[in-house]
Design a protein that fits this description.
Strand content: 15-25%
Number of helices: 16
Shape: globular
Bound molecules: S-adenosylmethionine
Radius of gyration: 24 Å
Number of domains: 2
Structural class: alpha/beta
Strand order of the largest sheet: 11-10-4-12-13-15-14
Helix content: 25-40%
Number of strands: 15
Length: 467
């Protein structure tokens, strides 16, 4: 039986605990804050868009998608991504129009049209909906004159060369259910942390929940809607996954999910819009409409045209997926569990594979400060540098680049010394097919039999020398 162990992190975003990995997916500091600070800010995207009008991003270990969402949010928020409405539609409109009923003649929202993508029908809401009363019994069909567009985003930045900016995001994770859940997690408030007292392995994460609530970043609602649309379209299996539905419908998990989006999903699954009791249907549509489409978001959605935004979620072992991937990426977010738990995605061979997929001016961003990871990067042909967060005056990760001039914070003498100690012995996975356990076992033997200085001896010697 599939389980998730959610909790509210200290910025109100939901984190997950994994009993199998015995690790948390997200730091309690804040799942969203972490995504911004470790992946989005150091990528210096604003600077990137000064000279580029296309971008390819690879999100390795998508999980519930904070890195992809933060990226999308950043672009929307900074107006790098200003989306122009071109009156196009998501899907080609087919005849399978679902007619619905309203219980109010004056209701502006009285129609929904379904659009067909493969054989499954999807529903889109428009921000300029007008009704045609088709019969005396108020039976009406929606006409969508403006729709939320996906697969496409056209950017308008101050620089005019960004008019045709194209964005491609490929997201990989072995766990397809996390893709399914990803659009539904809501952003809580400080007092929502009371839900952390529910029995979701709370004891294990309790010790990590002490720091202060700080909502520095917030996702625009369009972000989840865009992810929702993409996931339901590209992973239609979501509708038949029993374990997913058990969780999304369970009362126990309710506080963690956005109930409007789950209601939306339920309606799509059941395709019962036309059979819903009138009053419930009207209330339901009213809520969706006003939450996502109407007044509050109208401005943003008016400018939405996702013509140039392509999101490709893929359930796969990242090693296998990348072997057959022909893309060259500008940014790679590597967010695997720690090297000691998930060495398959931190091995020398994996970095060699990433080398083939990184643009000459591209950047791999990781939260890891491990000497073994840095050594693997260097041996794979990259230059490794540090990610510095001035707010907390700390180095919070490592970047790998082909163009050395992109490094702002070089590895120090201490870092390089550590790399040359036993701590720098990297993981090996010659054919990119070993289990994590096998990689860990081989690594342990290599460390034990190595003649290199131990990390503790190196650290002692280094501090003696520097004092
Ligand atoms: C730390 S979590 C990532 C959190 C994620 N970035 C987010 O925003 O929610 C690590 C993820 O790595 C995935 N994973 C583990 N091994 C993998 C592999 N070999 N290939 C692809 N994904 C893997 C797990 O399923 C898990 O979702």
């Amino acid at each position: 039986m599939y389980k998730i162990h959610p909790y509210f992190t200290n910025d109100g975003s939901v984190g997950l605990f994994s009993p199998e990995a015995d690790d948390i997916y997200h730091s309690t500091y804040g799942a969203l804050s972490e995504a911004y600070e470790k992946f989005i800010l150091p990528a210096e995207l604003e600077k990137y868009f000064e000279n580029n009008s296309e971008i390819k991003v690879l999100d390795i270990c998508y999980g519930i998608g904070y890195n992809t969402k933060s990226f999308l949010n950043f672009l929307l928020e900074k107006n790098i991504l200003k989306i122009k409405n071109k009156n196009k539609k998501f899907f080609s409109k087919k005849e399978n129009i679902v007619s619905i009923y309203t219980n109010n003649n004056e209701s502006k929202l009285c129609n929904v049209t379904t659009y067909s993508n493969n054989n499954s029908s999807d529903m889109i809401y428009s921000d300029k909906v007008y009704s045609e009363t088709q019969s005396k019994n108020k039976h009406a069909i929606i006409t969508n004159s403006e729709t939320i567009h996906s697969n496409n985003i056209s950017h308008i930045n101050s620089a005019s060369n960004l008019q045709n900016c194209k964005i491609f995001v490929k997201a990989i994770d072995v766990d397809e259910k996390l893709f399914y859940f990803s659009p539904f997690f809501r952003q809580g408030k400080e007092n929502d942390k009371k839900y952390n007292k529910l029995d979701f392995e709370y004891e294990k994460i309790n010790k990590l929940l002490n720091c202060e609530f700080r909502q520095k970043y917030k996702l625009k609602p369009e972000v989840n809607l865009i992810i929702f649309k993409n996931i339901t379209e590209k992973m239609p299996e979501i509708f038949d996954n029993i374990e997913f539905w058990q969780i999304i419908e369970s009362k126990k998990y309710k506080p963690f999910f956005d109930c409007k989006l789950t209601a939306f999903l339920r309606a799509l699954k059941n395709k019962t819009l036309n059979s819903m009791p009138r009053c419930r249907l009207n209330a339901f549509l009213h809520n969706i409409y006003y939450k996502y489409i109407s007044i509050r978001y109208k401005k943003a959605l008016n400018s939405l045209n996702l013509d140039d935004f392509i999101f490709e979620p893929e359930r796969a072992d990242a090693r296998i997926s990348l072997k057959s991937d022909k893309n060259i990426y500008n940014f790679i977010f590597l967010d695997a569990f720690t090297p000691a738990k998930c060495p398959a995605l931190w091995s020398l061979e994996f970095f060699k594979l990433l080398y083939e997929h990184l643009d000459k001016n591209g950047m791999i961003l990781t939260y890891s400060n491990s000497a073994a990871v840095r050594n693997a990067m260097i041996n794979a042909g990259f230059f490794a540098g540090k990610i510095y967060n001035p707010e907390i005056n700390k180095y919070t990760g490592t970047i790998a680049v082909k163009n050395k001039s992109l490094i702002k914070h070089e590895l120090s003498e201490y870092d390089l010394g550590l790399i040359n100690s036993k701590a720098g012995i990297f993981y090996r996975d010659e054919n990119l097919d070993l289990s994590n356990e096998a990689i860990i076992a081989a690594h342990k033997i290599e460390v034990e039999t190595s003649n290199k200085i131990s990390s503790s001896r190196f650290i002692k010697a280094f501090s003696r020398k520097s004092s």
